[in-house]
Amino acid sequence: MRLTFKHFDGRRRNYEPIIDEDSGKQVGLIQYEGVGFGGSGGIDVSLFGGKYAISVNQYDECWGFVKGVEAVLNEMTSTRTKRPFGASWSDHLKKEASQEADAGQ
């Protein structure tokens, strides 16, 4: 998943779609309403039908939220081996090796 949207300056009221470049589908929407230097206005971000949403005041916060959701969802859907919570990586590798050795006997 690679989420993208066009850069915007936020000085007027408008909308920008958030697109997943891998699927080509729109997965979210950004609504901005004339964000000012004093924190007036705002940027509303909604992803996946509102499952992930936030209101921010700066473009950088908007970009960070979208990229953060992308990173978390990519990690959750990754097929690579994950270590259990709280376990050290070396303990996890030893356990995997032991399980493979037991399966080979």
Feature tags:
105 residues, single chain, alpha+beta, elongated, 32% helix, 5-stranded antiparallel β-sheet
Chain-wise SSE layout:
Elements: E1 3-4, E2 13-20, E3 25-33, E4 43-47, E5 52-56, H1 59-76, H2 89-104
Antiparallel strand pairs: 1-2, 2-3, 3-4, 4-5
Question: Nutshell version of this structure?
Answer:
This protein has 105 residues and is of the alpha+beta class. The protein has two helices and five strands. The protein has helices at 59-76, 89-104, and strands at 3-4, 13-20, 25-33, 43-47, 52-56.
Sketch the topology as an H/E string, one letter per element.
EEEEEHH
Determine the structural class based on helices, strands and strand pairing.
alpha+beta
Alpha-carbon distance between the two ends: 40 Å
Give the overall average pLDDT. Answer: 84
What's the total number of strands? 5
Tell me the radius of gyration.
Answer: 20 Å
For the biggest β-sheet, the strand order reads 1-2-3-4-5
Structural shape: elongated
**Helical content, roughly?**
25-40%
Overall description:
With 105 residues, the chain is of the alpha+beta class. The protein has two helices and five strands, in the order βββββαα. A five-stranded antiparallel β-sheet has the order 1-2-3-4-5, with helices on one face. Strand 2 and strand 3 form a beta hairpin. It starts with a strand and ends with a helix.
